Amino acid sequence: MAGVLLNHVTKTFETDTEPSGRKYVLKDLNLTIKDKEFICVLGKSGGGKSTLLNLVAGYLKPTSGEIIVNGKTVSGPSAERGVVFQEHALFPWYTVSQNIQFGLKIKKNKHAKEIADQYIHMIGLEGYENKYPASLSGGMAQRVGIARALANNPDLLLMDEPLGALDALTRENMRKELIRIWKQAGKTILFITHSVPEAVYLADRVILLKNGIIDMDLHIDLPRLRDPKSREFINYVTMLERGLAEKETDGILSE
Amino acid sequence: MTAQKISKERREAIRVQKMYDRIAANEKIMLQKKQRRENAKAARALGVKKNAKSEWHNKVARICSLIGFFLVWQGVCMLNSNGAFFNPTFLPSPADVVMTGYKYIQDGTLWVQIWSSMYRTLLGFALGVVVALILGILTTSFQTMDNIISPILNMIGPIPVFAFLPMFIIWFGIGEQSKIILIAYATFLPLMTYTVDGINNTSPVLIRSAKSLGANQFQIFTKVIMKSALPNVFVGMKVSLALTFSALVVAEMMGASRGLGFMITNARNWFKVGDMFLAAALIGLEYTVFFSILTALEKLLFKWKRSGLSNAVET
Predict the structure, then answer these.
(1) pLDDT tens, A86-125?
(2) A214 forms bridges with which residues in the sheet?
(3) Whether A164 contacts A86, CB under 8 Å
(4) pTM of the entire structure?
(5) What is the C-alpha separation between B44 and B55, in angstroms, rounded?
(6) What is the value of ipTM here, to two decimals?
(7) Which of B19, B21, B212 minimises the CB distance to A81?
(8) B92-305 has which CATH code?
(9) Which of the four, A6, A22, B178, B204, has the lowest number of CB atoms within 10 Å?
C-alpha cells in the first residue's frame, strides 16, 4: 500500500522580486494518488513540479498543509520513498554494483549482492558490475540510478525528469522499460516531466501544474503499450498542450 | 478479442525487448571501442605505438638536461680547481658531494641525520593531518564549533608559522616536542582549509540520494561526505608537505643536535660546504619520496576519478 495524500499543501519561498516578499510555488494543493497508480506531473520550468517532488521526498517542508504517504505524515527523506534524479546522482566512488547495493547494505540485507546482480541483469549491464559511474554513458548511468532506487524496494518511486538527459532512442526505450518495471513490481510512481507525449505515454493520470495550482487532472484511458501515432494519443497530447499554452496566457492576463 | 489483445501486447513486449537488447548491445560496442582507444593510449604511453617516438624524445631530452646540469657544474669546478675564478671551497663539485656522502655512510653518521629528520617529519605531518581532519570535521558539522574555532584560526593564521618557534621552544623545550609541534602546526593550517572546502563541496544531490536510500547522519558522513572530501584532503596534504619540510629545516636549524637542517648549520660553523650541499640534496630527496608516496596513495584510492585534463581532448 502506498497511497499519497496531499492536504492543502502550500510552499512559499522568500524573494525580493515580489512586493509581498514571498513567492508561492505551490498554492493550497490537494491531490490523492492511489496505490500502484502511475502519475505524471506536467508543467513548465519553474511551475513547481520539482518542488512538489522534493516535498513528497521529504527534502523540503511544506509552508502549510501536510503530505501523507502510506498513512504516515512525511517528516523527512526515507527509504520508503525512492528517488530517481534528473542527473543520475550515482556515488562516483562506488562501482555499479556497490551503488545498487548501497541501500541494501544500510538495511544489512544479507542478499545484497544477489539482488544487485538481479537488477544489473534487468537493466542489461552485465559485465559492468565493477565499473565506476565515470566510465558509463548517460543512458547506462541513468539505468543504474533507476535500478538503485528499485533495489531498495520502496513503496513509492519519485522520478524527477529521469529521462530528460537521454538521447531520443534511449529515452523511448527507457519509457517502455519503465512501464514493464512498473507493471511487474507494482509500485506507485510519481513522475515529473516537461514532455507532454512522455506524460501521455506513461501515466494513468496526468496532473498539469501551472503557477502552483493543478490546472488539469486528466485520466489517460488508453491500453498499454500506447501508440504515440494513434488518434486518441494525439488527442490527449493536443488537449494537454493547449492546456499548457492557454492557461499560460490566462495567467499572465490575470496577474 | 481479449486473447488477441494479449498476444498483441506480448508481441509488442517482445519487440520492445529486442529493440532494447539491440541498444544495449550498441552501447556495449561503443564502450568497447572507447576501451580500445584507451588501451591504445596506454600503449602509446609505454612507447609502443607511433606517438612513442616523440614521447621517448621528450624523456631523453629531460634526462639529458639533468645530466648536462651536473656536467656543467662538474666542469666549472674542474676549471676552477686552481682557484682561477673564485675560491674553490665555496662550490664543491658534484663528485665531491657524492664522496662526502659516501664518507658519512661509511662512518655511519649519515643515517642518524636522515632518520631523525624522517622521524620528525612523519610524526609532525601525521599529527598535523589528524588535527586538521578533526577540526575540519568539527567546524563543518557543528555551527557552534565553527563559531568558536574559526575566529581564532583567522586571527593566528596570518602569522608566519616560524614566528612561533621561539615560543614553542620555551613552552615545549628544546627537544623533539617543540620541533614536532612546529611541523604539525605548519602542516595543519593549509590542510584544514582544504578539508573544510572538500566537506562543504559535497554535492547536495548525493546527500539527498543517500538519505532516500535510508542512510542515517553517520552513514552519510562516512559513505558520502568523507568519500567526496578525501581527494581534496589529499591535495591539501600535498600542498602542506612543502610547508612541513620548511618547518622541519627551520626547526632543525634552531637548537637541534641531529637532523639534516642541523647538518647545514653545523657545516656552516665548520665551513664544510660539501656537507651543506649533501644535506640540502637529501632534504630534497626526502621530500620527493614523501610526495611520491602521497601520489601513489592517491592513484590507489581514487581509481574512480578521471582526470579532466588528460581525458578532455585526446591528443
Answers:
(1) 888 999 999 999 999 999 999 999 999 999 998 898 888 8
(2) A209
(3) yes
(4) 0.77
(5) 8
(6) 0.87
(7) B212
(8) 1.10.3720.10
(9) B204
